[in-house]
Amino acid sequence: MNKHNQKHLTISDRLYIEQELLQKTSFKAIAKVLHKDPTTISKEVKRARILISRDRFARKCRLCYFYDSCSDRNLCRKIKEHPIFNTCGPLCKKCYRWNPQDECPNFLEFTCHKCTKAPYVCNSCPKHRTCFLEHYIYDAKKAQRLYEQTLSKSREGINMTPEELQELNDLISPLILKGQPLSHIFAVHADEIPVCRRTLYNYLDQRVFQARNIDLPRRVRYKKRKKTSEPRKNKNLQQVYRNKRTYVDFERFMDAHPDLDVVEMDTVKGGRDKGKCLLTLLFRSCSFMIVILMSDCTQRSVIKAINDLTEVLGIRTFKKYFPVILTDNGSEFKNPWDIEKTESGTHRTYVFYCDPYVSNQKGRLEKNHEYIRYVIPKGRSMYRYTQEDINLMTSHINSTARDSLNGATPFDLAALLLDKKIPALAGQFKVSPDEVMLKPELIEHRDHSKEAAHE
Questions:
Q1: Predicted confidence (pLDDT) at residue 119 exceeds the cutoff of 50
Q2: Residues 92-97: what's their mean pLDDT?
Q3: Nearest CA-CA partner of 189 in 199, 180, 178, 179
Q4: Is the peptide bond before 126 cis (omega within 30 degrees of 0)?
Q5: Kind and range of the H or E run holding 450
Q6: Which of 37, 69, 151, 284 lies in the 20 to 30 Å Cα band around 168?
Q7: pLDDT at residue 84 tops 70
């Protein structure tokens, strides 16, 4: 017998139980075939058995223990007050107006004890179809229907007291309103939340919290995707800057140098104006991200940002932690020669390019851009922001726990895998879990203060 079989009984299992009850098979023998414990079969039969009540049209005398041998006659004549005095037939048990339970001196109600012990039902009794006593029957189809109703009912509603629900609301809602994802909340407060994440989503659907679904960034429905068209003809393959720097070359290089870390690089643009934009660099090993604010999205600005980062960290640190850079085919990255070397001509990194229109080849960075869009929505201009604002935003992003990191934050892994001075030199600091905010208000209030000072 498989003692670890904790699965629910199926309709086929219940049909087998019903069939074996007709054959007077013991619970132990049934359980052995179904790989269950005998108590499981016993509980199933007692829980799902159907009570068959006494036939209301049956004669009351049939319930008497002495019915077959009873020969009483004219008992009503012995009771002068009886309304049917001197009107009944010769045999009392055949009189339809006679109530032996109240007036027959010899009436003894017959009771059957078969349902008080195993198998607790009368399926195997040959007289159960004509029996006038209360008895039980096990029906597999009705048992399955009862099981499904119980299963559905047990999962409806809210299985918490109003006090517990209010306590959970006081914990969850303020964090959600700050823009924190549920993955981060569960990673930090798993011991304080008495329900699973799926249940919490159901409670949000039922609007029992102060926070609503609209406050969850990933709960918004996406537009229906268009039908994928044929792949575009790739003209970049013939361009010089991609020579020996394609994604195939990147895979071959990493196979030959598996110990080297990979940094994914991309840009995040603001509004339609050609103003400020963000250069993002993400370490694959720990998902730690560095964001640099640039004056415009050009090759000159990208090279200047890389040179400034090299100067701040030092050439040795840069070569150690930025050995390989993987980026896309944007026009701002089409000068790999100046990215790979310093102004003095010292080699500092290797640059490779993803295949055109295949953004999942640097999917970690693309996913991380989603956190930036929580704070800086798409289409919003960045002309108001400073590098201090961007560092504050990046500090909150890197302090957010991730499911992909098993509940850890990029800051936690960066402390183990990167030089400790990299976050500090990048202007970042670790934020307390409950203080993490991924809303535009994080840096918008700084804009108002700057505008007021300017005026």
A1: yes
A2: 66
A3: 180
A4: no
A5: helix 441-454
A6: 151
A7: no
> How many CA within 13 A on the CB side of residue 137?
14
Flag whether pLDDT at 246 surpasses 50: yes
Q: How far is CA 143 from CA 37, 114, 134, 206, 228, in A?
A: 19, 21, 19, 31, 49
Of the listed ranges 61-75, 128-142, 231-245, 250-264, the one predicted with least confidence? 231-245
**What is the dihedral sign for C-alpha 174, 178, 180, 181?**
positive
Mean pLDDT, rounded, for 27-53: 91
Rounded CA-CA distance 224/332 in Å is 31
- Of 51, 42, 55, 48, the C-alpha closest to 11 is 48
Look at residue 42 in the predicted model and tell me its pLDDT: 94
DSSP of 247-284, one letter per residue?
Answer: HHHHHHHHHH-TTS-EEEEEEEE-SSSS--EEEEEEET
pLDDT exceeds 80 at position 409: yes
What per-residue confidence (pLDDT) applies to 236?
45
Cα–Cα distance measured from residue 219 to residue 216, given in angstroms and rounded to the nearest whole number: 5
Count the neighbouring beta carbons within 10 Å of the beta carbon of residue 238.
8
Q: Are strands 135-137 and 50-52 parallel, antiparallel or unpaired?
A: antiparallel
- Whether residue 289 has pLDDT greater than 70: yes
Of 438, 402, 437, whose CA–CA distance to 287 is shortest? 402
pLDDT tens digit sequence for 345-359 = 999 999 999 998 888
β-pairing, 50-52 with 350-353? unpaired
Dist CA 54 CA 151 (whole Å) = 31
| Strand order, beta sheet including 262-269 | 289-294, 277-283, 262-269, 324-327, 350-353
Beta strands 324-327 and 289-294, pairing class: unpaired
| Pairing between β-strand 277-283 and β-strand 289-294 as defined by DSSP bridges | antiparallel
The two beta strands, 277-283 and 262-269, are: antiparallel
Is the confidence at residue 292, as pLDDT, over 90? yes
CB 276 within 8 A of CB 386: no
* 415/366 Cα distance (integer angstroms): 23
User: Which class for 346: exposed (0-12), middle (13-18), buried (19 or more C-beta within 10 A)?
Assistant: exposed
The Cα–Cα gap between 347 and 342 comes to 7
Contact 305, 313 (CB under 8 A): no
Average pLDDT on 412-428 reads 91
User: How far is residue 52 from each of residues 19, 49, 130, 134, measured CA to CA in Å?
Assistant: 19, 10, 11, 6
